[in-house]
């Protein structure tokens, strides 16, 4: 934000803040009322699995389109358009009487979130100036705030249709977001990063090993995050925990996300590589403990296991912070975000759906929790490689040079 006025810096700060707040609340609020929602529609566990999987699938599908869309109408235009579509879904979705209409409008809700997931890091990289780390800290921290508050909305509504109000209330901050970003269209207009005169790292993003491992790290941790957001309250309730306490358990995950959002961008910027690589290993061990505890003693220690799962979920803000931290050129940031997040979210979407299908088939959480615990070993190993301090730009340039040399020799 160097060279911009104090008022514009403040406006950019607030724009990032409101956008980040709306990235999770509308999703996790559904997980907290999933039992009531399914009962109201008379649907099955498989449909419940589909509902919890929609965010991941939509993030993957629409995330792929985010960068090409931004090239046509600019980062700010794409972000604002997605926010308007999401607001429409949030306003209408709670009041439909058919589960498939609910599923369809959930797609509307997550379109805007999918676009923001991919483009907001690139927007920050382009407009953040000297305050990129500060804005990424705001982004990941406030994202955790939204995730924390999302499931708590059910505590403020009673009655047969309380679940509808519990998810409708999140249309209010979404409307504030739209009102905040529409003026940004006039301030930023077309703002996709232009190609510099010097040689640019424009190779295929998957030729960078670091980009691939960031994608895998993002995907595996997102799969765990969406399984937890969609199913953890039901796992606790089935074990005898009250619905209110189950919602609090999910909120504990969000509180840990706030801590992670505040600390991870700074940790990545300041920690030496040889020390940073152990962070995802520690987070993986914590998540392993949380899953095993939830399997063996869910009712006795639901708050403890929520804490360990939440500590493990610090992988999420770490993965987000790695996207701008491991790139130099804003176009590479957009490319990495457009690769890691959509592909990662498609991997993540399979998790909640498989969990719902397996639970429908076996009627038990034990096998599912054991499988999730074993999966944290893979998460730790992939995260170990993804956090190495290697710049994606350098790997792309090296891949281009190798290709040029190969063509020169033939």
From TrEMBL:
It comes from the Bacteria. The chain crosses the membrane at residues 41-66, 73-93, 99-120, 132-153, 165-187, 208-227, 247-269, 276-297, 303-323, 343-362, 368-387. The keyword Cell membrane does not apply. The keyword Nucleotide-binding does not apply. It is found in: Cell membrane. Keywords: Membrane, Transmembrane, Transmembrane helix. PROSITE patterns: MFS. It is a multi-pass membrane protein. One of its GO terms (cellular component) is plasma membrane. GO terms for molecular function: transmembrane transporter activity. CDD domains: MFS_NIMT_CynX_like. This is Cyanate permease. Pfam families: MFS_1. The lineage of its organism: Bacteria, Bacillati, Actinomycetota, Actinomycetes, Mycobacteriales. Residues 8-391 form the Major facilitator superfamily (MFS) profile domain.
